[in-house]
Amino acid sequence: MSYNYLIDTFAWVEYFRGTKKGEMVRNCVEEEKAITPTIVLAELSDIYERKAIPKWESDLAFIISKTAIANLNQQLAIEAGKIKNEVRKKHKTKFGLADAIILATAIKANAKVVTGDQHFEKLSNVLFL
User: Fold this and answer.
1) Which one, 22, 30, 42, 82, has the greatest CB density within 10 A?
2) pLDDT band at residue 19, thresholds of 50, 70 and 90?
3) Which of 1.10.10.10, 3.40.50.1010, 3.40.50.720, 3.90.1300.10 would CATH assign to domain 5-128?
4) Do residues 83 and 103 make contact, with C-beta atoms less than 8 angstroms apart?
5) Are 31 and 1 in contact (CB under 8 A)?
6) Angle CA(115)–CA(102)–CA(36) in degrees, nearest 5?
């Protein structure tokens, strides 16, 4: 299935904080053609736990109800490893494996990555907040 947007960790944080950037995310989520990778759920769980944010269960339920959840599989994992190294060579950046998993998921879903993460700023197929 094809999606319009992949909502990354940065974007979800802005959304739940209610910022101006979060308003842009809201517009993407309301189209109901958005996807969230499981790696993003892991990153969000970490943030909520580390910062003792009490609303994790309700925010997670919202994400699950409003976006499709993309699981990491063998094909995506292999592609992510390749993408990580390609992006690092081309853009001379410390593009991480989690970012590569997010990008690989977006490519597979034919979706734009919605983010404000600086690692994605120079990449195509990104809606930069």
Assistant:
1) 22
2) very high
3) 3.40.50.1010
4) yes
5) no
6) 75
- Give the whole-angstrom CA distance, residue 22 versus residue 129: 9
Cα first-last separation, the chain? 25
Distances (CA, A) of 87 to 7, 16, 95: 20, 29, 7
| Number of neighbours of residue 118 by Cβ within 10 angstroms | 11
Q: Find the DSSP H helices in 67-124.
A: 74-91, 97-109
Parse the chain into domains and list their residue ranges. 5-128
Angle between helices 56-66 and 38-50 (to 10 degrees): 160
Provide the whole-model pTM. Answer: 0.93
